[in-house]
Design a protein that fits this description.
The protein is built from 7 helices and 11 strands. The chain has a 9-stranded mixed β-sheet, sandwiched between helices. Strands 9-10 form a two-stranded antiparallel ribbon. The longest helix has 20 residues. The chain is globular. The mean pLDDT is 92.
Length: 275
């Protein structure tokens, strides 16, 4: 199987993209053809955006040419995860067998609840794959801490196994799966279960905080800095009901959320809005 791997955390590094290199190695051990096309810098919270009007540059860059993932083509792009998916499908793999599956991730941190799924660049990379007619899986590893090597390798093993399993049993009507893997001891023995995405809303907190308030000298000007207050998400996950991705995380299970790559219209509303 030829797998196109994209992400939103950028090239491998210990500080914010520690999972992609061992994951690619796990896919290679399972005998998959793997092509990696990733942003040159982190692109979190960007969903499936494209940078309209910006010309993109791709550069071949293997992070570890002596590692066991030899033979994998690594390319970095000065664009978004969705743009990496586009380039990977239509421009950078024409000399290879057709791509069978787009895998986005593994994300550095969980992507549970509708808030994260709508905002995530990792999910966005998979959404783009689905909208290009490919099966797609977004994978998130639910930790931003520095994890022991054995837990990372176990998470990569079980994720690679899950990729193969989902391709075998892909359900009719599913365009992509959003997967969250708990970073706990024995993760490769944990149950993987189908879930829904826990509904969650910004109600009491904001993604921004005011840094400089309006003053007479700066009339009409205020400055806000990116400083997400995630209490709404944390509160929602702590109260998650069974069958949701939030509940699976609390229970230490792997959540597998089947999705379609669209905003669905609401049924039952017909006729004129006004005359």
């Amino acid at each position: 199987m030829h797998i196109l791997v994209v992400n939103d955390d950028g090239p491998p590094n210990d500080s914010c993209s520690p999972y992609i290199l061992p994951f690619v190695q796990a896919l290679r051990r399972d005998k998959h053809i793997v092509t990696v096309v990733i942003p040159s810098t982190p692109q979190s919270w960007i969903s499936k955006a494209h940078l309209v009007g910006k010309s993109l540059t791709s550069v071949r860059h293997h992070p570890n040419p002596l590692a066991e993932d030899e033979g994998v083509e690594w390319t970095v792009v000065n664009g978004t995860p969705a743009s990496c998916t586009q380039l990977g499908l239509y421009h950078l793999t024409s000399h290879l067998p057709p791509v069978d599956l787009v895998v986005s991730g593994p994300n550095w941190g969980r992507n549970v609840t509708t808030l994260y799924n709508l905002a995530s660049g990792t999910v966005g990379g998979a959404l783009e794959g689905a909208q290009c007619g490919k099966r797609a899986i977004a994978i998130s590893f639910a930790s931003k801490d520095k994890e022991p090597k054995d837990i990372i390798e176990a998470a990569c093993r079980v994720s690679a196994r899950l990729v193969s399993r989902l391709m075998e049993v892909w359900a009719a009507g599913v365009e992509l799966y959003a997967v969250n893997v708990p970073m706990i001891s024995g993760v490769d023995t944990r149950k993987a279960e189908y879930t829904t995405s826990l509904p969650c809303y910004w109600t009491q907190n904001s993604l921004f905080q005011e840094a400089i308030k309006e003053t007479p000298e700066r009339a009409g000007t205020r400055e806000f800095v990116w400083r997400p207050q995630l209490k709404d998400v944390e509160r929602g996950v702590s109260r998650a009901y069974n069958g949701t991705d939030g509940s699976a995380m609390v229970e230490g299970h792997i959540s597998v959320t089947p999705m379609i790559a669209t905003f669905r219209s609401v049924d039952g509303l017909t006729g004129s809005v006004f005359r």
